[in-house]
Structure formats: C-alpha cells, structure tokens
Amino acid sequence: MSTAKKQYKRVTVKSLIDMKANAEKISMLTAYDFTMAKIVDQAGVDVILVGDSASNVMAGHETTLPITLDQMIYHASGVIRGIDRSLVVVDLPFGSYQSDPKEALRSAIRIMKESGAHAIKMEGGSEIKDSTKRILKAGIPVMGHLGLTPQSIYKFGTYTVRAKEEAEAKKLKEDALLLERLGCFALVLEKVPAQLAKEVAKSLTIPVIGIGAGNGVDGQVLVLHDMLGMDHEFSPRFLRRYADLKTIMTDAFKQYNKDVKSGDFPNDKEQY
Predict the structure, then answer these.
(1) Nearest residue to 146 (alpha-carbon basis) of 216, 211, 97
(2) pLDDT tens, position by position, 231-251
C-alpha cells in the first residue's frame, strides 16, 4: 500500500533531506527570469536553479565562464520575485570563489542579500574545501556539484562523461563524502556513469540530484530551455524533451508577421 507524500508549503533545505529519507524523488529545473520561475513554481517543481547556464541560453556564450556575479544576482532577483514554494539555489559564477575563501564568502553574501536566494551552488570538491567551509560557517546553505563541472571545461577539454576511470571515480566518491562532512545540504552529479552515481547516492545522507547520472539518485535536474525543446541542436542522451517550443514559437511568430503585413492584425475587435 502506497503512502501519501508530504505536501510542502515551502521547500527548504531540510525538506530535501526529508524527501531523501522518505524515498521521495526531488524535481529541479533551471529558471532565469520572473515569468518562467512563476510557471515552474506553480507547476510544483521542488527546486529552481538559477544556473550559470544563463551564460549559454540567455546570453549566447559558448561556455558558462563569462557570466558575472552581478548578472547572476540580476537573474536570481527576478526568479525570487516569481516564486512562492520552490527552493531557489544560485550558482556562484566562475572566478567568484575558487581561489580565495574570503572572496567566496563575499560573493555568496552578495547573492543572498541582493537577490533573496535561499542557497548557493559551487562546483568542485577538495579543491574548494576552504571556500566551502567559510561560506557554510557564515550560515549560507551550499549545494555541491561534482562530475562534469562546466566551469572547468578548458581543464577537461570536452563535455564527455566523467569518472569512468577508477582513479577519477575514487576521487569523486571521496569528494562527495567530504562535501557532506563539511555540511553541504545536497549534491549535483553531472554526466557520470549511472552505477557510480547510484553508489554515491547510497553512501550519503544528503540528497544527490543527477543530470546525466541515471535514475539511481535522489532527484533530477534539467535546463529549462533544453527540456522545453527551444534548441534542437543540443541533444545529449540524458535529455528528454517535454515540449517542442521552438516549432510552436516559430509558427506563432510567422503567423503574427503574416497578419501584420496583411493588415489583418489588429482587427476591429482588437482596437479601442
């Protein structure tokens, strides 16, 4: 007999840990503006990630590296104004935390104070231990991110699956345990073998949210624009398109253009 899942009026970091303990899967999507965040929130998605993927899908950059802290705060502020229930997590952008723990704390504080976000996300394990500790010590919730870490793309040189080799898989497991010990409330695993992700999720008490990490983890995240089918050129194996908005929007724009050119829009009922 199935047990009814708890209804969360507001999702918090504690809610996610409770969801894992109750074997309830966690849903997470990106959003970068008020309108989209409001729709995602009203759909019941648990976590909204204001991802540095805004650099790609909003600004058209090839990588996530160019986006600035000010831009992340701008996007996060709009998202916060659109939500009532979802937990909002914001990526610390490249260069704002990696080398200097004091700078990392300043960056995290700016995001929390200026946007109203609920938590931040950082890429890396032992390499950013000191920055992670300093932010957590200040009382700011931190979500970790291991596996494929897009901010390190020039180090990797490719977006291929990570941790397929034993040495890298061993380090990933160690880093996951380290992040939990430091006090991170959750962990994203990106583009790693499904069996490894499952092992990591079982080894931790904090939830593990996957993207390209199989179904043995505690939740899933996708980039909003990808799952809505707004870009047909990006087609990784892990992506499921839930809509084809590129076609729908293109058809609507073409029809609008045609109606304006022909004089059909606006008609008599659409005038004052």
Answers:
(1) 211
(2) 888 889 999 999 999 999 999
Phi then psi for residue 232, to 5 deg, are -85, -5
Question: For the residues of the chain, what is the DSSP string, one character each?
Answer: -PPPPPPPSS--HHHHHHHHHTT--EEEEE--SHHHHHHHHHTT-SEEEE-TTHHHHTT--SSSTT--HHHHHHHHHHHHHH-SSSEEEEEPPTTSSSS-HHHHHHHHHHHHHHH--SEEE---SGGGHHHHHHHHHTT--EEEEEES-GGGHHHH-S-PPP--SHHHHHHHHHHHHHHHHHT-SEEEEES--HHHHHHHHHH-SS-EEEESS-SSSSEEEE-HHHHTTS-SS---TT---S--HHHHHHHHHHHHHHHHHHT-SS-GGG--
Q: Please give the structure tokens belonging to residue 83.
A: 């939500």
Distance, in Å, from the CA atom of 248 to the CA atom of 256, rounded to the nearest integer, reads 12
Q: How confident is the model at residue 151 (pLDDT cuts 50, 70, 90)?
A: confident
- Euclidean distance between CA atoms 95 and 32, whole angstroms: 20
Please identify which of the residues 24, 123, 180, 190 carries the catalytic annotation.
Answer: 190
To the nearest 10 degrees (0 to 180), the angle between helices 101-115 and 69-82 is 30
Answer whether 67's CB lies under 8 Å from 97's CB: no
Amino acid letter, 96: S
Q: Give the tokens for residue 58.
A: 């909003």
pLDDT above 70: percentage of residues in the chain: 96
Domains and CATH numbers, the chain: 13-241 (3.20.20.60), 244-272 (no CATH)
For the question of residue 190 being annotated catalytic, the response is: yes
